[in-house]
């Protein structure tokens, strides 16, 4: 059986039933038709993101999604910089060798 795929907006709206509207996780889960464990996971994730904790998986809030995108860009740029350093070192070592 394939696991349902819920949109980020749906997860945030559902978690906000618990966080902002005082529903219990069980009642909110029943109201939107998801498992209680999924609801608890979404609530915990959203609460952590609101505290500034970047999640390991896909972020729910726009701010954390932006942070994840920037972190990915930094990693890519660092890899590119390392490649350029190695290429420069290789080219310099070739130019230092005496001609025969």
SSE order and pairing:
Elements: H1 8-19, H2 25-32, H3 36-50, H4 62-96
Keywords: Coiled coil
Protein name: Transposase
Organism: Spartinivicinus marinus
Give your account of this protein's structure.
The protein is an all-alpha fold and 100 residues long. It has one domain (8-96): Arc Repressor Mutant, subunit A (Orthogonal Bundle). The protein is built from 4 helices and no strands. It has helices at residues 8-19, 25-32, 36-50, 62-96. Helix 1 packs across helix 3 and helix 2 (25-32) crosses helix 3 (36-50).
Shape summary: elongated
Low-confidence stretches: none
Number of helices: 4
- Count of domains: 1
End-to-end CA span: 69 Å
Main beta sheet, described? none
From the helix content, strand content and strand pairing, which structural class follows?
Answer: mainly alpha
Which fold does the CATH topology refer to?
A: Arc Repressor Mutant, subunit A
Q: Mind telling me the C-alpha Rg? A: 23 Å
The helical percent reads: over 70%
CATH top level assignment = Mainly Alpha
Give me the strand/helix succession: HHHH
Q: Count the strands? A: 0
Q: Please state the average pLDDT score.
A: 91
**CATH architecture, please?**
Orthogonal Bundle
- Portion in strands: under 5%
Keywords: Coiled coil
GO molecular function: DNA binding; transposase activity
Family: Belongs to the transposase 8 family.
Pfam families: HTH_Tnp_1
Précis, in short:
By secondary structure, the protein is mainly α.
What would the keywords be for this entry?
100 residues, Arc Repressor Mutant, subunit A, elongated, mainly alpha
